[in-house]
């Protein structure tokens, strides 16, 4: 057994890209998303190519506005997640409607893919300076200018949040064993704090609305098979660190689905049912939840960077306008004075300040 310290091997840019990486994600989408990728992206001008890393453009030729519909605070985040939970594809009478379960599956895969891309852009190695730093161009091209990818990150986060919340009673009595009684107590306290924080969030994912039809068991088995296949495809990743984080988060998502759809609330008791989850599954779930949480934080960070970079351009444009109108304004004031028309002092002060700052 090989143990790896994840804190010493963070998920970040490794240089692994190109045809090899593209083939992995292509296989995941084409072989494991119920053949609905084209249906889920139909009519979306920014998502007609899931492997496209360039900045998409609308039919008008204008770039898509980055950070569209990204929540700025907790209240907006709650509303955003609620809106995602209420979205549907097609009407009940539509023959082309994609069933809820398959839509959820696709969104999870897309959310995982997008979250991984966010961390690559957030922990980008600048070869010129030798410093790890956020790469705004990378983020905008891969994620920021694709609203549907941003939405799927939040959707995946909401599902993981619900899974951790539902698993609370199980984790409350789970025997954490780190080899140190003191460390065990610290871990247990931190886990309880996390569970408590999830209860303060509004319910945004209702797992009871899924797998209720006559084909429920078949769909559940397909979910399991597809996730196992995704994990096997991750074995083909040529970068060891990328493979590590890819498989870890695939297991984490699989564990979340196991929590939500395989057990009722009253069965989640580690004393009566001690073998429901392996230790590795719990570790994977927490690390995946952390990765998605960090993704939301990174989105806000990139928004701030973007706004700071745009501010000088806006100020520059404002000054150009002032320079253009300055002679006309000053001439008008002089004309008024020559006609003995009184000009309020505060107006003169405003004009002076505007053209001297």
From TrEMBL:
GO terms for cellular component: endoplasmic reticulum membrane. InterPro entries: Ero1, ERO1-like_sf. GO terms for molecular function: FAD binding; protein-disulfide reductase activity; thiol oxidase activity. FAD binds at residues 12, 14, 25, 110, 113, 142. Disulfide bonds join 239-242. One of its GO terms (biological process) is protein folding in endoplasmic reticulum. The keyword Disulfide bond applies. The active site is at 239 (nucleophile), 242. Transmembrane segments: none annotated. Coiled coil: none annotated. Its main location: endoplasmic reticulum. Its cofactor is FAD. Keywords: Disulfide bond, Electron transport, Endoplasmic reticulum, FAD, Flavoprotein, Glycoprotein, Membrane, Oxidoreductase, Redox-active center, Signal, Transport. It is a peripheral membrane protein. It is found in: Endoplasmic reticulum membrane. Belongs to the EROs family. May function both as a monomer and a homodimer. This is Endoplasmic oxidoreductin-1.
